[in-house]
């Protein structure tokens, strides 16, 4: 008598999930889409209130500079009295690429607010490549590279990393890893900080 093995629904789901894991592990574009899909269902929501509750240390705007594609240099310490949104990213980083659409939406909402400055910092210092990526994907974000080494206390080498300094020059929010910044809560946080 021949024993027929039947695939149960759980076995089929397991095999499909394993195939998806392998595909996302081997294909960076698939990782980006997976993270964006998770964002769409409510994952990766940043919580500025949680950051404020759990981080009591006072960090101020460092004396640090960035350069744009035209060679103009902006000093972050000279941006006191403004909310400064700094995002460190790279074109090869799937979590970075996954969060850029939400940052672009956030930037579109606040780009005319003179009290908020956005700095998208390419960690590879390859402005041509990163500018091409932004342009090809119809993102209108202000692009910069670092002029000197950023303090390890604020940037430990993990990307993406987002830092937000308040008008008082103090660090109000820090997040490493992907986040969906186009949320009502995060919009309210920026509006409150910009007043």
Describe this structure in words.
It is globular and about 70 Å long. The longest helix is centred in the N-terminal third of the chain and has 18 residues, at 9-26. By secondary structure, the chain is an alpha/beta fold. A seven-stranded mixed sheet has the order 2-1-5-4-3-6-7. It has six helices and seven strands, in the order αααβββαβαβββα. Helix content is 39%, strand content 18%. It has two domains: 9-39, no CATH class; 44-194, Glutaredoxin (3-Layer(aba) Sandwich). It has helices at 9-26, 28-40, 48-54, 94-110, 127-136, 184-194, and strands at 65-67, 73-75, 83-89, 116-122, 143-146, 161-165, 171-176. Strand 6 (161-165) and strand 7 (171-176) form a beta hairpin.
In short:
With 195 residues, the chain is α/β, with parallel strands linked by helices.
Overall shape: globular
**Series of H and E elements:** HHHEEEHEHEEEH
Q: Regarding CATH, which class of the largest domain?
A: Alpha Beta
- Main sheet: strands, sense, barrel: 7 strands, mixed
As for the CATH topology of the largest domain, it is Glutaredoxin
Number of helices: 6
Strand order of the largest sheet: 2-1-5-4-3-6-7
> Mean pLDDT, as a whole number?
87
What is the domain total for the residues? Answer: 2
Radius of gyration (CA) equals: 20 Å
Estimated structural class: alpha/beta
CATH architecture of the largest domain: 3-Layer(aba) Sandwich
Beta-strand fraction estimate: 15-25%
CATH superfamily of the largest domain: Glutaredoxin
Report helical residue fraction.
25-40%
- Total beta strands: 7
End-to-end Cα distance, whole Å, is 79 Å
- Uncertain ranges: none
